[in-house]
């Protein structure tokens, strides 16, 4: 259920991408970890107050980050598009889109933080339902309506996203606020209790979460940068290789990488609470079990990638691009197996509050990525295949480096068990958490893919797709900070619940929410302030820049809500609420988000704005469900 919860949200974005891909000029590339880690650790340690404090700190940080990103985007709204293109039409479109983009980034900061809280608490099932409702019941439908019915084009598509994020954040917020942190520690037993919450404890909790969130944010940026660099090198080979590589990357993410990441998120709950309870040997066993399952699943995912060309042709993609994508996908297959293992390793270290080795490993691999891409893509004559090969090599190097650290580091002495037959047992129990967790992630990602496909059906699809691509790339960049906060909250909550400290877990949640709220506000302000120049970073076309500027407010709201829901999702994962999270994500994204996006984008002719508002509605529903239904009503003593 953990993987289901995460996948629902991730799939929403993938759907948006696919929808824009239906346009004449389809293109797009589409943190939870730190807050998730902090909350899961505190819950695992039985510290409900500490976990609740982690929540407060995370929300505050998310608020600050979201506000900062919003302010930056709004300040650069007229120039941001120039960083991506010099086409005047695209630049104008980007400017009009920037307000929506900034808004979605601000909302997303909270959504991401809330998801981290949800994972830390083990609420993946609920998170999946929230994501489903936010993105697929509101976001995507609203995007379609706005973009195609109301002719808002790309703005309509992005408005659907903003709406989905808004609903998602509201749902996660309500769930988190109503959580009974005393009950959350029942997963592994109750031990110590925090008698009172003082300013010192709040500051200590904030430091713990930031200590986790910062490195996890860095790891996320480094991993994302490698994908961007690979596509950049391929882009110099020509339009067809670039389109093929982009399409293959998107397809592989939808069908493989997002699913593996979501399933690995089950370890947020299992490893986090085991570590908090002092059952260090179980941390290693859980990791081994997850690795075995993900390797097995990767075999079937690899088979699917073999038929990438045929699948894309069946989806009416251009034959030349489909053939290029099929070849690129074949060389991505080795990276699938490495990626699954790597995600398990990251969770293994993260839930034990060991984060800097991951930063060093990712930094080393990222530093080697550029020269290796140049060698394999440009000098060797492999072309686009060289970029795919380098991606696989990079992931396997990361796996090797982290494996060596776990093998020889004294920090992992208690948790590294060597091969254990116990890892082959209780696999159904792992699947009960991992499947909802995957849904939580994929449902959201697929929503964005749907929005991209929908943008391709709008008038002037080249402009709509270009602007939506800029907005989504900006959204991903802004999401990195809430992603880290979410993971921190997840770890803190799960650790405290595992240790039997419900009050500490409750404190972690409150702190995480405060931090992500502050980050979200800052991000909103930045996006609003930079809305007129942000598009110039991607394009020199006035039409694109103006369009991005018009989209920035929606993007800011979307980012704000997404940050909150990310933290709430992290709390859900740390508490073991994966099934609930999956249901929440399903309802939020597919019963609210997608329908709202369709209505706003096509029926109301809001075009791209309508699509993005659909996403905002999904996030809003997601936040409400997570915040009210789960977190607020949770008894942390029982957890």
TrEMBL record:
Q: Where in the cell is it found?
A: Membrane
Q: Which GO terms describe its biological process?
A: xenobiotic detoxification by transmembrane export across the plasma membrane
* Keyword Membrane attached: yes
Q: What is the lineage of its organism?
A: Eukaryota, Viridiplantae, Streptophyta, Embryophyta, Tracheophyta
Enumerate the transmembrane spans: 53-74, 94-114, 126-150, 156-177, 210-235, 247-270, 291-313, 325-342, 354-377, 393-409, 430-454, 466-486, 507-530, 550-571, 583-604, 610-632
Q: What is this protein called?
A: Protein DETOXIFICATION
Q: Which key words tag this protein in UniProt?
A: Membrane, Transmembrane, Transmembrane helix
Q: One Pfam family, short name please?
A: MatE
| Keyword Membrane listed | yes
- Any one GO MF annotation of this record: antiporter activity
Provide the family line. Answer: Belongs to the multi antimicrobial extrusion (MATE) (TC 2.A.66.1) family.
Q: How does it sit in the membrane?
A: Multi-pass membrane protein
Instruction: Identify the stretch annotated as signal peptide in this record.
Output: none
* Top-level division of the source organism's lineage: Eukaryota
GO cellular component annotations of the record: membrane
């Amino acid at each position: 259920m953990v993987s289901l919860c995460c996948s629902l949200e991730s799939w929403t974005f993938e759907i948006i991408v696919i929808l824009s891909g239906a346009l004449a000029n389809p293109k797009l590339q589409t943190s939870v970890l730190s807050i998730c880690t902090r909350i899961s650790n505190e819950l695992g340690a039985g510290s409900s107050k500490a976990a609740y404090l982690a929540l407060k700190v995370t929300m505050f940080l998310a608020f600050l980050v979201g506000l900062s990103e919003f302010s930056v985007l709004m300040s650069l709204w007229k120039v941001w598009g120039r960083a991506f293109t010099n086409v005047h039409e695209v630049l104008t479109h980007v400017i009009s889109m920037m307000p929506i983009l900034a808004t979605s980034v601000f909302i997303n900061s909270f959504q991401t933080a809330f998801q981290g809280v949800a994972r830390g608490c083990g609420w993946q099932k609920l998170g999946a339902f929230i994501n489903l409702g936010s993105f697929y019941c509101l976001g995507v439908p609203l995007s379609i309506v706005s973009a195609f019915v109301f002719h808002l084009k790309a703005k309509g598509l992005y408005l659907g996203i903003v709406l989905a994020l808004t609903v998602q954040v509201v749902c996660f917020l309500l769930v988190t606020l109503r959580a009974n942190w005393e009950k959350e520690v029942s997963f592994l037993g109750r031990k110590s209790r925090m008698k009172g919450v003082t300013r010192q404890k709040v500051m200590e909790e904030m430091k713990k979460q930031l200590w986790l969130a910062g490195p996890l944010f860095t790891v996320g940026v480094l991993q994302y940068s490698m994908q961007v660099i690979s596509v950049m090198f391929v882009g110099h080979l020509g339009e067809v290789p670039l389109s093929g590589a982009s399409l293959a990357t998107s397809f592989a993410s939808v069908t493989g990488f997002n699913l593996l990441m979501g399933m690995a998120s089950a370890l947020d709950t299992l490893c986090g609470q085991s570590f908090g309870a002092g059952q260090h040997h179980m941390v290693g066993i859980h990791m081994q079990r997850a690795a075995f399952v993900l390797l097995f699943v990767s075999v079937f995912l690899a088979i699917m990638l073999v038929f990438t060309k045929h699948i894309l042709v069946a989806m009416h993609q251009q034959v030349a691009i489909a053939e290029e994508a099929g070849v690129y996908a074949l060389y991505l297959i080795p990276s699938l197996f490495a990626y699954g293992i790597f995600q398990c390793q990251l969770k293994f270290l993260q839930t034990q509050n060991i984060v800097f080795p991951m930063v060093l490993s990712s930094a080393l691999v990222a530093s080697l990525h550029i020269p290796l891409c140049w060698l394999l893509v440009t000098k060797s004559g492999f072309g686009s295949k060289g970029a795919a090969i380098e991606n696989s090599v990079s992931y396997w190097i990361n796996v090797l480096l982290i494996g060596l650290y776990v093998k020889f580091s004294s920090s992992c002495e208690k948790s590294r068990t060597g091969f254990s037959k116990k890892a082959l047992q209780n696999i159904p129990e792992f699947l009960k958490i991992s499947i909802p967790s995957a849904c939580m992630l994929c449902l959201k990602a697929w929503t964005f893919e749907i929005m991209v496909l929908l943008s391709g059906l709008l008038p002037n699809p080249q402009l709509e797709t270009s602007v939506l691509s800029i907005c989504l790339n900006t959204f991903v960049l802004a999401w990195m900070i809430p992603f880290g906060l979410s993971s921190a909250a997840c770890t803190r909550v799960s650790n405290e619940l595992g240790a039997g400290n419900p009050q500490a877990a409750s404190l972690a949640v409150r702190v995480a929410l405060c931090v992500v709220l502050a980050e979200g506000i800052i991000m909103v302000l930045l996006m609003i302030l930079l809305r007129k120049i942000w598009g110039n970073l991607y394009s020199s076309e006035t039409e694109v820049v103006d369009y991005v500027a018009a989209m920035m407010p929606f993007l800011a709201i979307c980012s704000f809500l997404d940050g909150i829901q990310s933290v709430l999702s992290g709390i859900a994962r740390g508490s073991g609420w994966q099934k609930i999270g999956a249901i929440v994500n399903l309802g939020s994204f597919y019963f609210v988000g997608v329908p709202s996006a369709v209505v706003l984008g096509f029926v109301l002719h809001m075009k791209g704005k309508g699509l993005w508002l659909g996403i905002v509605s999904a996030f809003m529903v997601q936040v409400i469900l997570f915040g009210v239904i789960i977190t607020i009503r949770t008894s942390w003593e029982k957890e």
